[in-house]
Amino acid sequence: MEIIIQSTYKQLATIASEIIRDALLKKPDLVLGLATGSTPIGLYKALVRMYKEDGLDFSSVTTFNLDEYVGIPCEHPQSYHTFMANHFFDHVNISMKNRHIPQNTAENHEAFCAAYEEAIARAGGIDIQVLGIGTDGHIGFNEVGSSLASRTRIVTLTESTLVANASHFEGDMSAVPEIAITMGIGTIMEAKQCLLLANGTSKSEAIAKAVEGPITSMVPASILQMHPNTVTIIDESAASDLKEVEYYKRSYANKLKLQSQ
Ligand code: GLP
After folding, report:
1. pTM for this model (two decimals)
2. Cβ of 33 less than 6 Å from ligand 1
3. pLDDT tens digit string along 88-134?
4. Cβ of 180 below 6 Å from ligand 1
5. 257 alpha carbon to ligand 1 midpoint, in Å?
6. Is the CB–ligand 1 distance for residue 51 below 6 Å?
7. 142/158 Cα distance (integer angstroms)
8. With contact defined as beta carbons under 8 Å apart, do 217 and 145 qualify?
9. pLDDT of 161-209, one tens digit each?
10. What residues have CB less than 8 Å from 20, skipping those under 6 apart?
């Protein structure tokens, strides 16, 4: 796993956006896996800027979001549909037909989940999957104990996730939907590249366990150690519990040195 440590949140967002921009310039019909939460907001902002100021073209891009709550309508201010519209989709030229977010209103969830997997396969698979991380190490809504081979499915959220996400529901934990649809860990692992983003000390323990701890379903992000192309981009605070910080910094500096030769 490649670990890139940056001093500020803005820098980590810039690096992530540059990886996506470079991939998009090489492959205009890029398939992006997208995440919600506060972590990727800076990345979306940077991509919107590239669209508006540099003419980066998203017209042939296809997107698949990781997850969505079940039990609130798409129009709900805290739905991930609303999040994506506000932070990204309303500001770039990704065609409506190419945007996919798990449907919180599907009548037959099982059929919907199977269809979501088929749609990803039909698009040729995900080229770059953006990931945040929960304080307990979850990715998407793959909570602790999720099968490391899981596919898109309905899940029940843990108390720790309900508490963390209550801040988006005016601090009212009982207002957070307990059920969600998420891409599985097996689905995520099939992405050609994963970008794991984290900032702040609240994520330092989860990052240390995911990057340097044993691979276990109790820390779902730890499976990324088995992914052949995961780039973990974090700030100094999120890196503060890692043992090998100096080594990661040296490795990245050498990579940049080689690139500039
Ligand atoms: C939720 C989302 C995850 C996200 C996590 C962390 O549980 N389903 O995809 O990574 O929250 O969110 P944040 O970036 O706000 O800390």
Report:
1. 0.97
2. no
3. 999 999 999 999 999 877 778 899 999 999 999 999 999 999 999 99
4. no
5. 33
6. no
7. 10
8. yes
9. 999 999 999 999 999 999 999 999 999 999 999 999 999 999 999 999 9
10. 30, 32, 43, 47, 128, 130, 195
**What single DSSP character describes residue 63?**
E
The answer for residues whose C-beta is within 8 angstroms of residue 151's C-beta and 6 or more apart is 113, 117, 183, 184, 186, 187
Q: Which helix (H) or strand (E) holds 208?
A: helix 204-212
Task: Output the CA 24–ligand 1 centroid distance in Å.
Answer: 25
Q: Which of 132, 111, 155, 148 is nearest to 41 (CA)?
A: 132
Mean pLDDT score, 51-74: 97
Q: What's the CA-to-centroid distance between 170 and ligand 1, angstroms? A: 17
Token representation of residue 25: 């310039």
Neighbours of 77 (CB within 10 A): 10
Beta bridge partners of 131: 196
What atom of ligand 1 comes closest to residue 67's alpha carbon?
Answer: 8
- C-beta separation of 210 from 196 below 8 A: yes
Residue 242 gets the label, from left (phi > 0), alpha (psi -120 to 50) or beta, of: beta
DSSP state of 216: B
pLDDT at 214: 98
